[in-house]
Amino acid sequence: MSDSEDLDLGDEDAGGLDNSSKKTSGLAALLPNLLKFIAIGLGAVVFIITVTVITSNIMLKNNAGQEAMPANSPYIGQRPQYAMFTAIGVVRTRTKDNQAVVVDMVIAYEQGNNATATELTARIVELQDFVRKFFSLKTADQVTPEKETEIKKEIIEQLNRDVLSPAKALNIFFRQLDVMKVEG
Fold first, then answer.
1. How far is residue 94's CA from residue 24's CA, in Å, rounded to a whole number?
2. What stretch of H or E contains 172?
3. Which helix (H) or strand (E) holds 117?
4. Count of C-beta atoms within a 10 Å radius of residue 42
5. Which distant-in-sequence residues (6+ apart) come within 8 Å of 107 by Cβ?
6. CATH topology for 82-180?
7. What does the alpha-carbon distance between residue 147 and residue 92 come to, in Å, rounded to a whole number?
């Protein structure tokens, strides 16, 4: 016999299979590939879920110390406490547009700073003169309650620059700030 007869390479039905069984064998060959892609998709979903769970657990552990603090906690930022210099007293002057001004100003400085307290006491007359000059250079429209924050900033800046050295004023408070129209 020849080699071609042994291998039976002809167009005859091989092994007695008909066309319908050839289709089934093609589907059987497709099934493992289909199952492989389904398994890869499921594996990807499981991987993504695992990474998400691990990441969220790590984030929750890191944020565990960031709980809301009680209102009376010493770690919550509190308003600073100042030492107050109140010895300036009431200063009366006139504005640039001839309106009467009555000012009782308090200077706030760093608590426990005895050098600042000493300097403020030593310069009391200079401070009273500063307050008088400051308000005499303003008009009544510049000394309104709406502009009080600006006035305080300006006073602190000028005090620290022109009057106090090395002491520093940290804040200004008014016990009284009245502008009264003077009948002429």
1. 110
2. strand 171-180
3. helix 114-122
4. 10
5. 84, 85, 88, 120, 127, 159, 169, 171, 172
6. Tetrahydropterin Synthase; Chain A (3.30.479)
7. 19
Report the candidate in 96, 114, 111, 108 with the shortest Cα–Cα distance to residue 156: 108
Residues in the chain: 184
pLDDT in tens, the chain (184 residues): 455 555 555 444 444 445 555 566 777 778 888 888 899 999 999 999 999 999 888 887 766 555 555 555 566 667 788 999 999 999 999 999 999 999 999 999 999 989 999 999 999 999 999 999 999 999 999 999 899 999 999 999 999 999 998 889 999 999 999 999 877 6
Give dist(CA 113, CA 74) in Å, integer: 23
Show me where the domains of the chain are located.
18-62, 82-180
* Exposed / middle / buried, residue 171 (Cβ in 10 Å: 0-12, 13-18, 19+): middle
* Alpha-carbon span 148 to 176, nearest angstrom: 12
Contacts of 99 (CB under 8 A, 6+ apart): 139, 140, 179, 180, 181, 182
Positions of E strands within 4-51: none
